[in-house]
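User: Fold both of these, please.

Assistant: Here is the first one.
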Amino acid sequence: MLNAQALLKQAREDTQLTDLNGEQVLEALDRLVHALNNEAALNDIGRYRAQASITNALKNRLKIENYIRDNPAVLDEVIERPIFISGLPRTGTTALHHMLNEDPANRTIRLWEGADMVPPAETASYSTDPRIEQSRQGVQLTEQFLPGFLKTHLLDAESPDECHMFFNQTLVSVEFTSSYNIPSYTNWVYQQNFDPLYAYHKKQMQLLQFKKPGRWVMKTPLHQLGVRAILKNHPSAIIVQTHRAPMTIVASGFSFNEVVRSGNSDHVDRNVIGRDWMEMMRIYSEEFESARAELEPHYPGQFLDVYHDDFVRDPWPDLEKIYSARQTTITEQGRAAMNRWLTNNPKGRHGKHEYRLEDYGVTRADVEALFADYVARYNVTME
């Protein structure tokens, strides 16, 4: 059994720090641990991974608060027109994120940074930081703990990762909702006020920008729930919504979630995965569409659409559209770097990802009903 107070004690002992600066993180810790103990049916690996993830998140938060207390100028950092990639899972967000990362002018959170944020990385040693090798060792274990994961998701120590790594420090994160069957915690996450969560997200952007500047590109499906909070904390933000045929993203998402959960529990029910993923997409879509309809008239030119199939055929019109919205242009250096990424990452490079809708207790009619309005609004095909 996991013990919330023991995890917190361990993080404080490891860092010799005590101040988390926020009572809400303690509530999240209690809810997460309760759900993991009572709902997740963890195996030994799952219990170890949950313990390590939570402890690391608490340690990061303790070190972040201590660093900012010693370096208050961090909070003076200005975040200029950040890009938030906010499409549903499996809609091409990762490819777009990776391409934008290749431009040296852009700033993403790298996998190795997210694992150990303090002290913040510096420009001069960004490619030689010793934390990179530590992260590489962790990536090498991924296929052992999560067989099939590397066929479903690009993962590398020096590659950009989702900014759920920022939300981990609040313990309100899709890393936990996707990795474990914990419905009480997941439903609680859906009900959160995202304003303070994105305020803490911004604080971490400022921290990592302090010694390594650049124009931020952020990405996680959770942005579907947070668009109001994003624009409250970043009024100049560019919101990029990616689109793909629903039949494809639904079945792909089921399979991805099964791979992730199977490494943490010996009792993974495909019907539960189907139910959870459909409910997640319903809640995400309804919140995002409501927020976009309300906010877009007040933030003209800041909501952009990228269609997966068009982007795969020719990414440059969409990339130029994004840069234009940010009031910048793609440099020759940036274009060359992105072209190299395209050459080195052809479709299917990491293996074929097999999935079938009916394996998860969901029918075609279920998907058509869920996405009928979406298909009509954005003029996408159902499959």
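And the second sequence with its predicted structure:
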Amino acid sequence: MGDLERLEADILEQVDSAADEAALEAVRVAALGKKGAISELLKGLGSLNPDERRERGGAVNRIKERVGAAIQHRRDALREVELERRLATERLDVTLPVREGPQQAGRIHPVSQVMDEMTAIFADMGFSIAEGPHIEDDFHNFTALNIPEEHPARQEMDTFYFPEGADGRRMLLRTHTSPVQIRTMMGRQPPIRIIAPGRVFRCDYDQTHTPMFHQVEGLVIDERAHLGHLKWVLAEFCKAFFEVDDVRMRFRASHFPFTEPSMEVDINCDRSGKELRIGEGDDWLEILGCGMVHPSVLRAVDLDPARYQGFAWGMGIDRIAMLKYGMPDLRAFFAADLRWLRHYGFATLDVPSLAGGLSR
């Protein structure tokens, strides 16, 4: 083997054994750089005669080409290995996570959920839903309900009034959903069995009161309705709504202008732990007011109290939602805070039913 062959073999061996591009570059400089082994051979051609120069120059140039090709091939291989290494160790997922659709991300407000729960319960008992306007007149909101002229509820400290109209009357924002009962009794003949959920308005604002809140009232009018029926309806509602097997109820005498006799209803509860537990313990919690419809109310809607009788009740939807789901402040219901709604809200497809469960 001649000196040129040995030089080529030695350089190619160094090229193949180069572990990285830096080592390969060092081999290239040592072979093809300004002072490299092959470059030095080319510089020495000037001392040879023309025939020797032609023959040796051609051989050296061929070695130079083969070494250059080998270096380039090795460089490509090393770069591919380095790229694979970097792809494996420096991987970065730049894709966005799958966004929830409106059915998954959306939330039903607790008030809407509780309204649906109550509707499911009372519909199972044969009640229908009745609705009425938010803006009422004095007759439907007060007079027909046997509320006297001097009653505090008629004062501006409790009721939102509109400016006086051309006819001298002042409309108002309804203070309860009882006007719906009046409109229903004036619009249809007994038997009547309805609930009237909706917004009501009063001049009040603190941790347990807001100027606008939600209320549901129930009404039954027929020829034979009595207090026993009322007690059964309320007991069945409380058991279904609070999802307990049994609940003890206490009826205390009270006074409402539109019912006689009138009662406030307490249910048993347990306050000994961190949570209020309904249907357990020996404590009592007031949840609603009720009574037999006053004969004056029946006469105001042209029903004969000697023939017809009935019972009614009313409760705050927001408050029973607070009791059931442990929400401490009524004002947060209307604060438009998405964090609160995500925490206390319900999935859009969680439709309450007595068969599948109210609160899931």
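The chain has a mean pLDDT of 87.
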